[in-house]
């Protein structure tokens, strides 16, 4: 008779006390913690590339060090019991504490400056219930608003982190995780379901309304996030032949979402169909919100995000593509990073001949650096000769730029600059590549729409200096903020007009997969340099 593996326990020590997890040998500590409900910071998906899933293991001396740990952790750290959860495969009871736990941000109210300020076309119409919800489902953040569908009045809005972050920072890592088993994919979808349910419950608790009076829900997002929530088509996104095809992300039956969210039993829950492959409906919503195809030829929209999407209008065709910019624009994936929330350094300005001053969102004690602050800091280093165009500190052995000394020491390191270089190279290379497809030069670009929460806070001059934005006249750059949510709201409120706008876009759009063109790789490499964008 085959022996049955014995079950062991892990004691997880947190600020709220100790918790017990049971496990069978053969699974990594990262997987055990995640399956037990403990979010572990692991943007690389568990291959030791990021070194962020650090845990302290009391019994560390009994477990051999993996090669990935020796690369990412110093000898002193390993000697002090610090380990990488993705590299530890426990076979006995352990006592563990998570060194860099993922902050599970409570849902916060959207600020007035986060709304588009647009007046949407609205005609009161027959609806099964009084209220409607618009949802922008992003890789890093989820944003939603609740509307009175009888009066066209916005009642409330919420923003929060996408809880799938513990499965990876980027869409490909999450899709790879989901493809491992139906159970993992189902859990990833349920994480988002529960998060949205919590946001809606929070709104209803602070407003005189009942969720069962919500009769319409419109959802936009990148293809991966929509497919994981819907529980369909997500494996197709790992197949190159589907990277330019339109994917159906609409669940045949949405009862599971109506039940999870407590909305009306007859509520219409609509997943706006992505344009194709990794070109999500969030980009379509942004194009609708900015009226991009009504603008002059040479107008380009860049929706900055973990999966950045770009659209170039040449007067006849909307050329569209996407690029894996990574989470740097969201303030993630860097050692001192955080989202653009209270406590984030969002601006780094010149103060004297070689000094700088910082500005912090909410006027709070600095807690970290968000994406726009990262761009500013790198531009300041270049302007003052402290960083070369390759991204190396000119002082030789410099360990980084100290931005703040206080309760939390905030230091911008060489590795953080490398993350930004790769993100901005994905954007710069993508813009140049689209220009080539449209037969336009950089000099023929007339307008640039910088979209996303990151775009709202950008300093245009600094972004152009390091090559993140094309060098058009500053007045030709429009900082649009969250156009995905704005377009989703318009689709929710004006169903007939919105459907017509979508059909018009589909008729003139051409989707490209840059991964199929070797020319993009050379453009990416050229745009790694910290300098103005060049042909």
In words, what does this structure look like?
The chain has helices at residues 29-35, 67-72, 75-79, 171-180, 182-205, 223-230, 255-261, 281-290, 371-383, 414-438, 453-456, 460-465, 483-493, 495-508, 518-526, and strands at residues 8-14, 17-23, 54-57, 82-84, 94-98, 108-109, 131-137, 141-148, 153-161, 214-221, 268-271, 299-303, 308-313, 318-323, 344-350, 356-360, 368-369, 401-404, 410-412, 447-451, 477-481, 509-511. A hairpin with a 5-residue loop joins strand 18 and strand 19 (410-412). Helix 8 (281-290) packs across helix 13. The longest helix is centred in the C-terminal third of the chain and has 25 residues, at 414-438. The strands form five sheets. It has a six-stranded mixed sheet, with helices on both faces. It starts with 7 loop residues before the first strand and ends in a 9-residue tail after the last helix. 30% of the residues lie in helices and 21% in strands. The protein is built from 15 helices and 22 strands. Among the domains are: 8-98, Roll (Ubiquitin-like (UB roll)); 108-284, 2-Layer Sandwich (Nucleotidyltransferase, domain 5), CATH 3.30.420.480; 336-412, no CATH class. It is of the alpha/beta class and 535 residues long.
